[in-house]
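Tokens as discussed.
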């Protein structure tokens, strides 16, 4: 029988994805020259741009809060699986927290040396760096079968490739959107996988 926490996790993940996608679809409102193919996502929420605060709330803060609630709901699914699974989920939560806080520390158009820009970049790095060991620990410790282990390892390998290695020249925007998609789809897959395991 499915437990209530697993259904709650799935609802929170779905809410995060819907908020994120809707915000991206509306990103060009007020800034028609913004391009998802070329520009980093955080550039749309830079200080001084029209609707920057709303964008940051919809793209980072609110989806991040939803995923934190989803992670909290998933904790009972790994609680008895050992320290690796628990630490893996905790690192995944740290990744979510860093993602959410990017919305509270927007880029500054004056340059990357400005304080909020430096904080934003540090949070962006923490977002993907925390996720990689989280995937390794969950793959090894969650004990949900080979399929879940491969799913975690695949996400853990793809995210840094798309975040650090792929964004070159005209591919910056597209590679970053693909990285966010991998990350969000991992949360969706984890909620579904752990739900089935109840």
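Sequence:
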């Amino acid at each position: 029988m499915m437990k209530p926490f697993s259904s709650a996790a799935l609802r929170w993940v779905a809410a995060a994805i819907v908020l994120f996608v809707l915000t991206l679809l509306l990103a060009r409102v007020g800034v028609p020259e913004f391009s998802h193919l070329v520009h980093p996502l955080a550039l749309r929420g830079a200080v001084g741009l029209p609707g920057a605060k709303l964008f940051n709330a919809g793209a980072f803060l609110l989806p991040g809060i939803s995923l934190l609630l989803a992670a909290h709901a998933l904790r009972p699914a790994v609680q008895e699986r050992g320290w690796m699974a628990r630490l893996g989920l905790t690192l995944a939560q740290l990744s979510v927290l860093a993602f959410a806080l990017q919305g509270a520390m927007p880029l500054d158009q004056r340059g990357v040396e400005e304080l909020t820009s430096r904080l934003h970049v540090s949070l962006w790095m923490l977002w993907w760096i925390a996720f990689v060991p989280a995937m390794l620990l969950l793959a090894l410790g969650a004990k949900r079968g080979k399929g879940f282990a491969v799913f975690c390892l695949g996400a853990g390998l793809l995210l840094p490739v798309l975040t650090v290695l792929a964004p070159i020249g005209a591919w910056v925007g597209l590679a970053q959107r693909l990285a966010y998609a991998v990350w969000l789809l991992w949360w969706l897959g984890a909620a579904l996988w752990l739900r089935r395991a109840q």
